[in-house]
């Protein structure tokens, strides 16, 4: 603790790296997230080129989301009762095998929209066990005072993957095709497995065994009793349905039909987003906010929605890239604030269940958004649909500020 407090303020963002276990965990996540980011670009573009319409992307991503939603609550309950590290290892091993199988099918020419949707679904199932376990493991590899640094660094790894991953995917895809990108993602899970295996986190007090349904229900009741939790989780279920889903489904069409550009330009937009997210996460860690974090994060999410409108309706590609960068800064800052508040304010024996409910709430409505965005793709321009969803999201976030606890929570 003395070493932590003696670090100069300019190095605050790096404090969590003093922990060997966190360095191992972070390295594994940085590599696997890079693979995930590259995989998403390749999956979307491969689906789009296979079928020629944006609706198919919505179908594949819907299957992936439904898979995750099917297991994330169970994963949260298991992670509060059992060894979180072991759950992560099992998930990484499963995802490595699943994506390796996809690479083999793609290489042998046995690819179809049905296969892509099935693989995405199974990959989502495995991720549903991983995400809550990771959220609960981070406080077990660092000390409490550096949780902000740890979350910012994990966020920077996530966002760095969005900076580098799309460009890596575009380069690999352009030179060698989607099979190589899929193989790269599979190997990234294997590396993550090895690094998580080497970690030695502290033991957490396990939740009392009550039966799966009762444990999940206990988590739901806890969230329902804390206004800043249930208001934010509920609101962002709708925000992501109206905001994230159209962007995922319609950006390939926006790049091809509006800007008349290729997969490289598509990847570069998400690289700019990732660069902004790194800046936002680093800024949060350096500022080390302790007051009015709810109010500040909600205001930032409103700015994010406005920047999506600029991105969607821009007549110039360079302005769309700039808007993506700036909204990335908003996302990086906002996510780091939220995750740090969860880990500081939620009891350790409830944390993985709350994280799982956060994932479930955030993604619960996105399958409907993905399907709706795909269906609407033939009714209006992609930019118009994306901007419309962002305007709805802006109104919803503003509505959340009517909650006194959101405005005053530190």
Which fold name corresponds to the CATH topology?
Growth Hormone, Chain: A
Give the integer mean of the pLDDT values: 83
What percentage of the residues does DSSP assign to strands (E)?
under 5%
Overall 3D shape: globular
As residue ranges, the low-confidence spans are: 1-10
CATH homologous superfamily assignment: MFS general substrate transporter like domains
Category by helix and strand content = mainly alpha
Overall tally of domains: 1
Oligomeric state of the chains present here: single chain
Instruction: Give the CATH level 1 class.
Output: Mainly Alpha
Number of strands: 0
What's the Cα radius of gyration? 20 Å
The main β sheet shows up as:
none
Distance between the termini: 23 Å
Series of H and E elements:
HHHHHHHHHHHHHHHHH
Which CATH architecture is right? Up-down Bundle
Compute the number of helices. Answer: 17
Helix content: over 70%
Short description:
The chain is mainly α and 410 residues long. Helices cover 81% and strands 0% of the residues.
Can you describe this structure?
The protein is mainly α and 410 residues long. The protein has a single domain, classed as MFS general substrate transporter like domains (Growth Hormone, Chain: A, Up-down Bundle), CATH 1.20.1250.20. Helices cover 81% and strands 0% of the residues. α4 packs antiparallel against α5 and α9 (227-242) runs parallel beside α15. The protein is globular. It starts with a helix and ends with a helix. Mean pLDDT is 83; it is low at 1-10.
